Amino acid sequence: MAKEITGRDKDYAQWYNDLVLKGGLADYSAVRGCMVIKPHGFALWENMRDQLDRMFKETGHVNAYFPLFIPKSFLSREAAHVEGFAKECAVVTHYRLKNDPDGNGVIVDPDAKLEEELIVRPTSETIIWHSYKDWIKSYRDLPLLINQWANVVRWEMRTRLFLRTTEFLWQEGHTAHATAAEAIAETRQMLDIYAEFSERWMALPVIRGVKTESERFAGAVETYCIEALMQDGKALQAGTSHFLGQNFAKAFDVKFSDKENKLEYVWATSWGVSTRLVGALVMAHSDDEGLILPPKIAPVQVVIIPVYKGTDQKEAIDNRVHALVSQLKKAGVRVKYDDNDNNRPGWKFAEYELKGVPVRIAIGARDLENNVAEVARRDTRQKETLPLDNLDTAIISLLDNIQQAMFEKARAYRDSHITRVDDWAAFERVLDEKGGFVAAHWDGTPATEEAIKQKTKATIRCIPLDNPQEIGTCVFSGKPSRERVLFARAY
RNA sequence: CGGGAUGUAGCGCAGCCCGGUAGCGCACCACGUUCGGGACGUGGGGGUCGCAGGUUCGAAUCCUGUCAUCCCGACCA
């Protein structure tokens, strides 16, 4: 009974859902638009989180925690910010239930109405800046470099596992600086950290760029982003880093005394990535056999499966495998010996492929006689027979090899799906038939951007950093343009 | 919020048209044989048929209402 995961080309949504569900990452929950992250999915997220956390700390950031609830009045302090989030907020209006007098379970107690409603945070800028006002008095208090790992809630109309859930886990960094230049440098530094994490740890190539005005974060002066490409040709925003200027400082009255004892508003940034990255990982690397996880963040990097008849053979294999396991563990490899007797080897092979374990080692009685093992890599599904002597070092280099190969494969796909286009007919044709990013000239106006979006559902994903300047004419309006921007249909 | 579909055992489904007191596969439990790509035999446990009304001697099945979920749109740093 093979659990087939097919339809990568035809029914991509179904293919993706199957991967998440059958790969054991998450499940639908009882709450609309929310999901249960299962142990395998959470272990993956933890590995990602831990590495990001290390990178944040290496660059001088510290963690803190702010409240889940935000008084409604806080949210309205920054006009653009409330405009951007008001439509998707969950609101707490009461603080008590009581038994229904008619005997139908419990009802909301109308006497327990809150004087001021509380918003379940869709993001924490407002409540954090309310604290920063008290924390920042002098240039000596700056820069303030704080990150928070938290859950947030955005009541989106339509949700997808990991990619857009009502509640999701993320980190949000919120920093305050004495100068604009320093804040911009921080914004760029965090973008680079996200890009490095994505490429080196998730094996997911990304394009660094800046958002256009219409795609900018609510309340930001400039939004930087990393954009990734999924296997169906749609783009996915994988992380953002915002230069907030003095908008929030002014809204929350956060001033500091500089060296000349002059009062100045601070300059701010915020940046975040979420469990959406898990979805990106699934969509960028998987195949019809299941998930393919990059070794550096896979919860289990190597699984060892014994093949035996009878307890004598099992014992002989156990002895040899235990030595291998301790060698690998000593080298820091996350290894699992699955000697569970309930399932047969073929079942286990298929199961670990579904779950995306990068390397599988099978050892049978026959192998033991020949002092070898069968080693299979998940990304290419190639198998080879390797000697048991020094197998640990071979495995360690194989893991590196897989990490590299996954990145190269994804990058080759991404690079072959950036298409330069100079006329409107080609623009529409490439979007429909090939997908991916379309590099085209744009006249720089929000009106043209919106018209293109209405016509094709494609949006400007970003203006790449270090974008070459090139004289041309807008693919839509024919007006003059100085550079190409990247369009794509996106999640 | 519009369009489509689905709610029956932990999961996947059949039964509904034509009403007669619930079934199949997987999973689970026991025993035995198995074990190099999702094993097999025998026996067993598990279900207020989403919920609420109605019709009927009798409703998973027919009628009305309602709720939920998924897909496609609209929406979305």
Topology of this structure?
Blueprint: H1 12-22, E1 26-28, E2 35-37, H2 39-58, E3 62-63, E4 69-71, H3 72-75, H4 79-85, E5 91-94, E6 97-99, E7 106-108, E8 113-120, H5 125-135, E9 144-153, E10 167-177, H6 180-201, E11 207-210, E12 222-229, E13 235-245, H7 247-251, E14 255-257, E15 263-265, E16 267-274, H8 276-285, E17 302-307, H9 310-330, E18 335-337, H10 345-355, E19 359-364, H11 365-370, E20 372-377, E21 383-387, H12 391-416, E22 418-420, H13 424-433, E23 437-441, H14 446-456, E24 459-464, E25 469-473, E26 480-488
Helix pairs in contact: 2-6
The structure holds one RNA strand of 77 nucleotides.
Structural commentary:
The chain has 491 residues and is α+β, with helices and mostly antiparallel strands. The chain has helices spanning 12-22, 39-58, 72-75, 79-85, 125-135, 180-201, 247-251, 276-285, 310-330, 345-355, 365-370, 391-416, 424-433, 446-456; strands at 26-28, 35-37, 62-63, 69-71, 91-94, 97-99, 106-108, 113-120, 144-153, 167-177, 207-210, 222-229, 235-245, 255-257, 263-265, 267-274, 302-307, 335-337, 359-364, 372-377, 383-387, 418-420, 437-441, 459-464, 469-473, 480-488. Strands 3, 9, 10, 11, 12, 13, 16, 22, 23, 24, 25 and 26 form a twelve-stranded mixed sheet that branches. The chain has a five-stranded mixed sheet with strand order 18-17-19-20-21, with helices on both faces. β12 (222-229) and β13 form a beta hairpin. The relative contact order is 0.11. The model has no long low-confidence stretch (mean pLDDT 93). The chain binds one RNA strand of 77 nucleotides through α1, β13, α10 and α11.
